[in-house]
């Protein structure tokens, strides 16, 4: 019969690895940090494998520890679910969702209540972060990314291709003719995703596609490093922004923004969903995948974005 390592020790390891420190694990388990350290040391001795390395007073996961963490977390979540179910407590799933920062700020956060209402009790951890992310270290269940090149070893699907549209507050729209010929003379809001991000369509590209001269003034104005921030600047009446349809559709529908000209520029890459193997069979993940895909496609397909 195989001798199993200490269950309490495995629990201490899982909590320390997930929380990022022995102190946080100790608080969660209601024991001392020294007790957590001793429990983990016992498991290491029983398994004959190092799970943590001590580096500059920090505990860093070894390859063996990283390999064990997601499987142990799943196991303890299942044990907890069985315990709550048998004890009559409400069964709640946990879902870790990772999206680009602009998606987390305002767009997805305001829509999550609809998913919870439709799906039922679920604990959601919403993470706004840039690519690449660590699925196992952060226990991410589903990731929305711009482009599909980041996670070639995981199950990834393209869900929607967005475009950018010139948008502005109603007061500024009155200064723009239907041809857009006066755009270059107005304050323009630029979006730059930074040196590590993908290339965002520039105003110069838009003017070239429209067959118009941008002039040097077209390169000046306000600049933001996120799509959401650029959109907020436009809503505030500070200029004309090239905004993604997924973010600006709602503001166009309720009148906070106007599309002064019809021409749009399609983004060079699609938005994709990535789900790690350990989460593929989870019912809550499948439900969230379907819901999020529908929400993205509904925004990008908004009637407010259809040229008139």
Structure report:
The protein is of the alpha/beta class and 308 residues long. 40% of the residues lie in helices and 19% in strands. The chain contains 11 helices and 12 strands. The protein has helices at residues 7-19, 22-29, 33-47, 63-87, 101-108, 112-119, 170-173, 203-209, 227-235, 245-253, 283-300, and strands at 52-55, 58-61, 93-99, 122-128, 142-146, 155-160, 163-167, 188-191, 222-224, 240-244, 265-266, 271-275. Strand 1 and strand 2 form a beta hairpin. Helix 1 (7-19) crosses helix 2 (22-29) and helix 2 crosses helix 3 (33-47). The mean pLDDT is 85.
Keywords for this structure?
5-stranded mixed β-sheet; 11 helices; alpha/beta; 40% helix; 12 strands; single chain; elongated; 308 residues
Strand order of the largest sheet: 4-3-5-12-6
Please provide the count of β strands. Answer: 12
The H/E string reads HHHEEHEHHEEEEHEHEHEHEEH
Summing up helix and strand content along with how strands pair, one would put the structural category as alpha/beta
Give the C-alpha Rg.
24 Å
The general outline is: elongated
- Summed over residues and divided by their number, the pLDDT gives a mean of 85
| Strand coverage percent | 15-25%
- How helical, in percent, are the residues? 40-55%
Largest sheet: 5 strands, mixed
């Amino acid at each position: 019969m195989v001798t199993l390592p200490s269950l309490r020790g495995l629990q201490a390891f899982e909590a320390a690895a997930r929380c990022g420190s022995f102190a946080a694990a100790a608080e969660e388990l209601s024991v001392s940090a020294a007790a957590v350290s001793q429990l983990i040391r016992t498991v290491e001795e029983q398994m004959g494998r190092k799970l943590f390395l001590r580096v500059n007073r920090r505990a860093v996961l070894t390859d063996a520890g990283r390999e064990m963490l997601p499987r142990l977390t799943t196991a303890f979540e299942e044990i907890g679910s069985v315990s709550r179910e048998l004890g009559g407590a409400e069964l709640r799933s946990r879902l870790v969702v990772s999206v680009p920062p602009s998606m987390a700020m305002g767009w997805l956060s305001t829509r999550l209540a609809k998913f919870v209402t439709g799906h039922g009790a679920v604990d959601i951890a919403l993470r706004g972060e840039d690519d690449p992310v660590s699925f196992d270290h952060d226990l991410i269940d589903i990731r929305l990314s711009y482009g599909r090149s980041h996670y070639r070893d995981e199950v990834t699907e393209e869900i929607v291709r967005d475009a950018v549209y010139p948008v502005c507050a109603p007061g500024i729209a009155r200064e723009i003719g239907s041809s857009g010929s006066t755009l270059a003379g107005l304050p323009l809001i630029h979006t730059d995703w930074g040196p590590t991000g993908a290339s965002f369509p520039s105003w110069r590209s838009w003017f070239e596609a429209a067959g118009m001269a941008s002039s040097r003034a077209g390169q000046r104005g306000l600049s933001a490093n996120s799509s959401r921030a650029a959109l907020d600047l436009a809503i505030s009446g500070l200029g004309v922004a090239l905004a993604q349809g997924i973010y600006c559709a709602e503001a166009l529908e309720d009148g906070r923004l106007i599309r002064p000209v019809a021409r749009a520029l399609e983004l060079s890459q699609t938005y994709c969903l990535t789900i790690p193997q350990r989460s593929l069979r989870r019912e809550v993940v499948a439900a969230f995948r379907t819901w999020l895909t529908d929400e993205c496609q509904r925004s990008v397909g908004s009637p407010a974005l259809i040229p008139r």
